[in-house]
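2024-03-11 09:14:02 DEBUG pipeline.ingest accepted 1 chain
2024-03-11 09:14:02 DEBUG pipeline.ingest length=262
2024-03-11 09:14:03 DEBUG pipeline.predict start
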Amino acid sequence: MRGRRWRGGPAGENPQGLGARADEPARTGAPAVIGLAAAARTYPGPPPVHALRPTDLTVHRGEYIAVVGPSGSGKSTLLNVIGLVDRPTGGRYRLDGIDTGGLPEADRTALRGHRIGLVFQAFHLLPYRTATENVMLAQVYLGTPRARRRTEAVDALLAVGLGHRLDALPSAMSGGERQRVAIARALVNRPSLLLCDEPTGNLDSASAGRVMNTLDALNGSGITLVVITHDPAVAARARRTITIRDGQLAEDSGELSVGSPV
């Protein structure tokens, strides 16, 4: 069964740029999805560890970004800051124009649930739940009305090409199919941003290719996509590649600038 065109963005919105070419992100009127201004993260010592040095970064709606770097370079710290898992210890982070710095933890959790879809190297699927039920769990946590859950979960699975596996258990699926279920779960609440941490790290090359084709198609439908990876073949799929080393965003291959430390 063919996947449906995915209507991305927070629930109830039809964000600017949806359906536009992925190399023409929307910039007029709408705030940037990610806006880091001198954002930094330092872990206390002794000695203190400057895991993310003061950095400016803007990601507009509809962009496709790869973040690459060696182990220990700060990729995970950057992901945790953007994903609202950790707070910056310096600077400012705006998500969809919302200044996240002063928000209480409950509000940050709610904002993450509604506006960020997270995909990890491990699939984190419940083994005795079907693909549809695993996707529906993400809706339960946000209080989506029961009457809408199954329909929206099926739509998300159709969007990643799994309409024929709606009732399959994880044990009956390939690694690539399980990762696509995880992507559908991240999409079902219609986030502004899909944030992927090594999404092909546990997959063979054929399954990895299918997962990356799915992400390419989702970005083509307007989803804003940030992929953390060590794999050059995965990074090559993105429209911009940002390199991080020693906590510093070192280069940006796209036309939009990454600011230097301040």
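2024-03-11 09:14:41 DEBUG pipeline.report Residues 131 and 166 are 5 Å apart (CA to CA).
2024-03-11 09:14:41 DEBUG pipeline.predict end
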